[in-house]
Specification:
mainly beta, 636 residues, 6-stranded antiparallel sheet
Length: 636
């Protein structure tokens, strides 16, 4: 899955001026605290041996950026960026946030050794942010040519009124470039690090919202990071949830009608000097525990339906993505992406306990390869699976190399069919994301065809084709699509037609916090009018099923969390009536990253599955936590 929107955000709102290279000799004393406000400014600290300098994060395209001992101006280590020209607006950067005082001038400097720079630049950014981490101003210095050894980049700017944070992007690189960076400093003749009001204090811990299987906690604190402890009341052992980058947190997967105890503590980021030694930071004291009892199991009610709480699927404990669900002969069949392959599980309908599970699509071993965004359907006694495959580990990979594949599983014999690749109907395009379903007894397959336009931007179109007797029928192209970049499409039967669900990434290019989602009806020959059914903030990956005279679809939606870096998504549920009337509710709103759902119908009940994450696009020193797949049901 390609997630490069962060780099677009960094580029998109820059205000400021370019500063130049300074010609001077390196002075090791310039790295010393307290004059230098940067933590680990010489990149010497990598205590867990992760290949990442402690106190810094890599983002955008981190596979082209590394901590290296190949060359250094001070100590043993520096940052190496060695990247080719990449499609679209894609940058490589290391970043660090430091709390500073408004109204004072600050100077950012770093030393670079540029061995190759073709059509790109090596920059250092000094970005100023307010308390909510919204950018106020950015200034930078840059080098656009090869250097003769180490050269110093330097930029100075007064922190505007309202500034709370300085964000350092060092180095910020694009183009065909190979460059080393070392010895980063931030200094000020009058300003300092902003001292927190109470460095380790956490207060007012309370249960803001309580459900049958979760408790949403809130508290007051000036610290950027926290840990939350939980245990059943009366037991001895605490379980710690780490890397909580907020003053709220939902503890999930609890038992109904059960008393729990919770406590919180602040974690101050450790600061390191130029030699990598700890100078400050660490954990504060735990708060006094609070006791909370979860509620009985109670469904939400909406539009004459009952929406059950959702529960973890025990096929895998964690680390799965893109679950799909189908029903056949009294059981459910779940497909999940796990470990680089796709796995099929047969589960019982009452509690989703596992009957068996097996590898359906093996991991590609030759080249590191992404396999994901699957879709499934059943025709007769065969389960059809379509998925996307991208050899992202190939340094020469481009999006036009992406391909959709499909294969079958015989539900009676257990025989797995061969893999079949889907080629583009348009020359020099990849096939990328799609779906399949049955309408009026006929199997239809749908996919995106993807290419780069003259500005190196991805562009896509939707293609539909029937598949009968082992062969594709004539292609129908969604030529009247109102977007040049439809994304995350799915198809499902709705009456005697197919309903196509898709989101608009062309709109997202203009506003990174806006991705409307549409439905379009298809009668087997042509596409109808496209209708937005959620135009608030950002929505994606809708799938659904018909129940009665309406179509119900679930999808990830950030409407309740604008401008949060896409760290939280509700699972929204929208009803689309035959008359075009649209109603929406937030079914799963536990302040997590809920994504990539699927849905099927059994009688008068709809069953949905989806994935749940923590902080998927958060700080890189906070690896995304994947809780695995969850299920819930909707009954009339």
């Amino acid at each position: 899955m390609n997630r490069l929107l962060t780099s677009v955000m960094v580029l998109g709102c820059i205000l400021g001026a370019v500063r130049s290279i300074a010609a001077e000799a390196f002075d090791p004393a310039s790295l010393a605290a307290p004059g230098n406000l940067v933590s680990n400014g010489s990149f010497e600290r990598d205590e867990p041996k992760t290949g990442l300098p402690d106190g810094w994060s890599f983002y955008a395209n981190p596979k082209f950026e590394s901590l290296t001992e190949a060359k250094a101006l001070h100590g043993k280590r520096s940052i190496l960026v060695d990247r080719p020209v990449l499609e679209g607006i894609v940058h490589v950067a290391a970043d660090q946030w430091i709390p500073i005082e408004q109204g004072h001038p600050y100077t950012l400097s770093a030393w670079v050794n540029v061995e190759r720079c073709n059509g790109g630049s090596v920059r250092i950014y000094l970005d100023y942010y307010d308390a909510r981490k919204s950018r106020i101003k950015a200034v930078w210095a840059e080098c656009k040519t090869k250097t003769d050894g180490w050269k110093k980049l330097i930029v100075t700017e007064k922190a505007p009124t309202g500034t709370h944070w300085a964000r350092l992007l060092v180095p910020y690189v694009d183009g065909d470039t190979r460059a080393f960076t070392d010895c980063v400093t931030v200094t000020s003749p009058t300003g300092r690090l902003r001292a927190p009001a109470a460095a380790d204090h956490v207060g007012s811990v309370r249960a803001d919202r309580v459900g049958c299987n979760f408790v949403h906690l809130e508290w007051s604190s000036d610290a950027p990071k926290h840990e939350v402890d939980v245990r059943k009341a009366g037991t001895g052992d605490w379980q710690t949830e780490r890397n909580v980058w907020s003053t709220f947190h939902s503890v999930i997967m609890l038992e109904p009608k059960t008393a729990y105890e919770f406590r919180v503590r602040a974690i101050r980021p450790e600061r390191y000097d130029a030699e990598g030694k700890v100078t400050s930071g660490g954990a504060g004291p735990w708060t006094q525990p609070i006791r909370v009892t979860t509620t009985p199991v109670e469904p939400k009610t909406w539009q004459g339906l009952e929406l059950s709480p959702t529960w973890h699927i025990p096929t895998f404990p964690s680390d799965t993505a893109y679950p799909c669900i189908e029903s056949h002969d009294g059981h459910f069949y779940i497909v999940e992406c796990w470990g680089g392959g796709l796995h099929l599980s047969k589960v019982r309908p009452d509690d989703f306990s596992v009957v068996w599970k097996k590898e359906f699509v093996p991991k590609v071993k030759e080249i590191p390869t992404y396999q994901g965004i699957p879709d499934t359907c059943i025709l007769g006694d065969k389960l059809y699976l379509m998925w996307n495959r991208q050899a992202t580990g190939d340094p020469n990979y481009v999006i036009m190399d992406s391909r959709q594949w499909f294969k079958t599983y015989d539900l009676k014999t257990g025989q797995i069919g061969p893999e079949t690749v889907i080629e583009s109907t348009k020359p020099a395009c990849g096939t990328w994301e799609g779906g399949l379903d049955v309408c009026q007894g006929k199997l239809w397959m749908m996919w995106l065809e993807v290419w780069l336009d003259a500005n190196k931007r991805r562009r896509t179109r939707v293609v539909m084709r029937p598949y009968e007797n082992g062969a594709f029928g004539a292609a129908v192209v969604f030529d009247n699509c109102p977007s040049a970049y439809p994304y995350g499409p799915s198809i499902s039967p709705f009456g005697d037609k197919l309903i196509l669900l898709w989101s608009d990434l062309e709109a997202n290019e203009k506003n990174s916090d806006h991705e409307p989602i549409y439905y379009t009806l298809f009668d087997g020959k042509r596409f109808g009018k496209s209708v937005k059914f959620n135009d608030k903030v950002r929505s994606r990956y809708a799938k659904g099923a018909q129940l009665g005279d309406a179509f119900y679809c679930v999808y990830k939606c950030s409407s309740q969390y604008p401008n949060t870096g896409y760290m939280y998504h509700d699972l929204a549920l929208t009803r689309i009536g035959r008359d075009g009337k649209i109603d929406t509710i937030y079914w799963v709103d536990d302040v997590k990253y809920n994504s990539s759902p699927d849905m099927c119908r059994v009688g008068e009940t709809l069953y949905a599955v989806y994935g749940k994450f923590e902080h998927l696009y958060g700080k890189r020193e906070d690896p995304a936590r994947n809780h695995g797949a969850f299920w819930g049901k909707i009954t009339r």
